[in-house]
Amino acid sequence: MSEPEPSEADLVAAEVDIHDWGPTEEDEEQILRDLGYVLNPVTGVYEGEGHVDGDV
Amino acid sequence: MSVQSMLAAARDSLGLAGRPNYITRDYAKRHGDEFLKAAWCDQAVTYWARKSGNAAAVLPEGDRAYTVWHAQDGQKLGRWFKGTVANVRAHAKPGAIVFFDWEGRDAVGGVDHVGVVERNLGDGRVQTIEANTGDACKRRVRAAPVIAGFWNPDYSVEEDDVPEVVSLGAGADQQVAANGEIVVRWGTEYVDDPKAHGDGEVAVLASGERWCLCDALVRIGGLQPGDELDVSWARYDRAGKKFLDDAWRLTCHAGPDGRIEVSVGGQFALDADNQLRLRIINASPRVAVVEKATMAKVSLFKH
Questions:
Q1: Backbone angles phi, psi at B191, to 5 degrees
Q2: Could you tell me if B43 and B24 are in contact, meaning their C-beta atoms sit under 8 angstroms apart?
Q3: How large is the C-alpha radius of gyration of chain B?
Q4: Which terminus of chain A faces fewer neighbouring Cβ atoms within 10 Å, N or C?
Q5: Mind telling me how many Å the CA of A3 is from chain B's nearest CA?
Q6: B78 C-beta neighbours (distance < 10 Å), count
């Protein structure tokens, strides 16, 4: 008898938090600042609309 | 329906952290509680697409939480680009769905994570919005070596405005006790969306916010001329435990042959938190019979 196909939930569960979500670009924060985003120190998120496209 | 609306939806989630959250709750509502605390990067892409009216472009095969399947959706459309520096520079547009593999492979099967491109930085890197990056939604900068690939949804695709149509038939006679009531059990169903009918065959369930057009042709016998009976399209909570309101209720009287044949229609809103049932309230001192030929058509329009 063949194994039943795993469900989407099974497949997602197999991936839960087994990765640290990727390598950080060394200049990530500088790039985000250069794009015009502003760090919210409470959330750690770069917020705002940023510069218009092309104005980097 | 545009890349701007997709990105606006993603920006609205910036700062969201922890789980469950409104994104995982929204997905779990449609697909099961096991998603409440599951990895939510792709659940977020699904949420943003649905919220912004871009589901047809971003979710061509329907909701996605499993990133590999979502990447494959782009392949099936012939829109997949491997995550090479040249491809990222030339083809990663704002709104692209970008898939990551931390082991640096450009294979769909190795995808670990997903985000949406907000800007192409022009140097083989993109600036993204990602959910579940450190269990939060943040802007990130990603480079080609960790980009397995990406695909650009066709944001010009209009949402499907064809209604989901549920055609229902009682299928069998159903008795209503004197001074009692029932909800009609629909034993026969023809439906576009297999999830639109459930809950013991009595409920019509919308998968999201829908404008609902109903029309029932109700046939009832066993009465005496003049006997009174109400027919109502009624809303209940999603679990079907709590009556909310009679969205459209009509009082009818039996004709000289002791029968009622009436068309009961209405237009009202349904969503994923409620359900629709057809109530028969028998005010007569006799057992009424909802005949098996009773039928209904329910059209659910996205709005």
A1: -145, 145
A2: yes
A3: 25
A4: N
A5: 19
A6: 7
Using an 8 Å CB-CB cutoff, list chain B residues near A47. Answer: 14-15
Task: Determine the average pLDDT of the residues in B199-214.
Answer: 79
CB atoms under 10 Å from CB of B17, counted, come to 15
Phi, psi at B77, each rounded to 5°: -80, -5
Query: What is the rounded distance in angstroms from the CA atom of residue B192 to the CA atom of residue B189?
Result: 10
| pLDDT given at position B206 | 80
| Tens digit of each residue's pLDDT (9 = 90 or more) over B96-154 | 999 999 888 888 888 989 999 999 999 999 999 999 998 999 999 999 999 999 999 99
Does A27 reach chain B within 8 Å, measured CB to CB? Answer: yes
Confidence of residue B303 (pLDDT cuts 50, 70, 90): low
Residue type, A24: T
For an interface test with B, the pick among A45, A51, A52 (most B C-beta atoms closer than 10 Å) comes out as A45
- DSSP secondary structure string for all residues of B38-81: S--HHHHHHHHHHHTT-HHHH-TTS----HHHHHHHHHHTT-EE
Cβ of A28 within 8 Å of Cβ of B141? The answer is: yes
pLDDT given at position B191: 61
**B11: CB partners within 8 A, 6+ apart:** B129
Strand order in the sheet with B113-120: B80-82, B147-151, B97-100, B113-120, B125-130, B138-143
* CA B283 vs CA B42, B85, B215, B223, B288: distances in Å: 52, 74, 22, 11, 10
Assigned token pair, A26: 């060394």
**How many residues make up chain B in this entry?**
303
End-to-end CA distance of chain B: 13
Best residue of B120, B140, B146, B147 to probe chain A, by most A CBs closer than 10 Å: B140
